[in-house]
Amino acid sequence: VFIAQSRASGSHRDLEDEELTRIFVMIPKTYTEEDLREKFKMYGDIEYCSIIKNKTTGESKGLGYVRYLKPSQAARAIEECDRSYRAILAEPKNKSSESFEHDYYSNAMRPELRGNTLPFCMQPEFCSFEKAETRIQEPVSKRLSVVSRLPFIQEQLFALFDLVPGLEYCDVQRDPHTNSGYAVIQYSTAASAIYAKYKLHGFEYPPGNRLTVVFLEDGSDSSE
């Protein structure tokens, strides 16, 4: 979606660099940059590797970046590398690295999701849904309402929400008076809907336009 949107502006390589080609990994503190490159070169052409170090002592923090030449290579590394690396896509460089490291540490230390049915267990934040004490306070369902101040294009919105497995349908509607966007999204399971809401509520699509994603009653027992 990012790449398709940016072709007209001519900035699609920049967006690939910022959003899709850098991964963030947890590594042993003994690793050098060469060790990191050696472990991840099997997934694609690496542009650079870097290890995050303590600014005072110069010691490794046990975290690093690997940047690939292609988004597909970064995606393959995230999917196929050992789960102990807890690989995720890195935040854009314009976000404070300290806050990103803090968020990553606090999420990555949570227990792994056992026996999950979604291929997102490498995303540490998704694993928080496993915790019994982390109950969703609002009523949940398999159906979502998506609202935007800009109109949607059916194919683009479908592609965005189809990134979460289990999408059953995407029904885009338009208010002729306000020209705003409205859509109803339904997944095969409540878990998929919860994850989609968690990841896409507040997401800027297109950039500068935030999506509002809320649950819609679908007649199912939300306690499940």
TrEMBL record:
A single GO molecular function term of this UniProt record: RNA binding
Q: Which UniProt keywords apply?
A: Repeat, RNA-binding
Q: Which InterPro entries match?
A: Nucleotide-bd_a/b_plait_sf (IPR012677), RBD_domain_sf (IPR035979), RBM45_RRM2 (IPR034206), RBM45_RRM3 (IPR034207), RRM_dom (IPR000504)
**Pfam families in the cross-refs:** RRM_1 (PF00076)
Q: Which residues form the RRM domain?
A: 21-95
The protein's superkingdom reads Eukaryota
The family database entries (SUPFAM superfamilies) matched by this protein are listed as:
RNA-binding domain, RBD
Repeat: is it a keyword of this entry? yes
User: What name does UniProt use for this protein?
Assistant: RBM45 protein
